[in-house]
Specification:
The protein has helices at residues 4-31, 35-61, 65-73, 75-102, 108-143, 150-161, 164-193, 197-222, 225-245, 259-265. By secondary structure, the chain is an all-alpha fold. The chain has one domain.
Amino acid sequence: MVSLSAIIGIVLTLIITLILPVAIWIIFAKKIKGISRAIIAGALGFIIPQLFIRIPILQLLGTNQSVVQFSEDNKYLFLLILAFSAGLFETTGRLIVLKVLSRNELSYYSSLGAGYGHGAAEAVGLIGLTYVNNLIFAVMINTGSLPTGDEYEFIKETFLSTSSSLFYAAGIERVLTVVFHIGLTILFAYMMSKKKTLTGFILCVAMHTLLDFTVVAVNALTQNIWISLIVLSAFAVISSVLIIKVRNKFNIKEMPKDPAEKALEEGY
């Protein structure tokens, strides 16, 4: 039987990574007019480079024996390459999104929305949808309705041998990561507003790479997800300070009106 604690952890993480992102989006949309455009753009800035390009490439490379052997022989170098590729692809997505938004003037709220959309899309795409399956499998195991077969036996053993704390950790990790993505996007937008796009791009790739590599490497070394979360928490705290401090440095804070709204107001 999957423990009650594990099922509660699955449900909580499912709420955090699937229901909460939509709820926060609705709250943002009600309080900040026009921010949905930025949130959708930010989400696409994650979905297209990561889910449609990078991850399929990694899956293809994972079938190459030379790549597999390299990853086994050079574990931490391989982790660094993976972290760098994530930073490169996601920052490129950010750049394109912010360039599109900057046609209508970059603002604090447009960059906040883009960062939230980026982080929320990652939470839903990588964790939320997975935890729908996790909940279904857990219920099937406990009700005895899980089909028979080696594949399903493996799934059952995985659930029964996994510490319930890991299901809680996944939800906490996503909250901290969303904060990091918002902070990074706001930083990049600010650098772009100061005509330092290349510097901002390099800085964001470096920070993203550092976070991904450090968290995964610490977990590999300690075999303790909670120590990794402490590291991630430090990045989230820095990002929170950034989100607050940089706000007043933007020339425009509110969501700028789109061209159609401007034309309507001016009587065109």
